[in-house]
Every structure is written in C-alpha cells, then in structure tokens.
Amino acid sequence: MRPEExxxxxxxxxxxxxxxxxxxxxxxxxxxxxxxLNKRMEDFKAFHAxxxxxxxxxxALDFTGDLLRLRAERQEENPAWEQxxxxxxxxxxxx
Length: 95
Hints:
Layout: E1 7-13, E2 16-22, H1 27-45, H2 52-77, H3 79-93
Antiparallel strand pairs: 1-2
Helix pairs in contact: 1-2
C-alpha cells in the first residue's frame, strides 16, 4: 500500500489524542481498539490501579494475555485441518 492510500485518523487514549495514518479498511478496527483500551483502563480504576500510566500498562498486559490465550487455542485447534489443507494444496500443485 502506498502512503497516499492511507487516511488520517485521530484517536484518544488516556486523554491523549494520537494522529495516525491507516489503511481505510483498518479505520474502524483502530477506533474500536482505542475505545476498548480506554474502556479497559476505566475498568482498572475500580481496582485502584494507580495513575493513567499504571492503568495503561495493566490494560496492555491484559489484552496481550488475551491475545496469547487466543493464539494458543488456535494452535491447538488448527493442526488437523491445517494438515488437510496442506495435502489439498499439494494435490492442486500437481495439476
């Protein structure tokens, strides 16, 4: 993607506005991610998780843990169909 194919987006995280350039198809993902991060940070206020920086760190750690769990679950589920897919690809390459 060429730089001119990106659009300007501004999101606020922890009260700070961040100007970004993203692919048009990613705009809603970026906005939703910022909203989710702010929501998670707000949730950590209930645990008296210090200042904004502490809540941001806790939220980042929490989301990263979620991502790692999803990746591990995906790896556990995928081997059977991935192997089938590889066999199909090999057969198709022979044609």
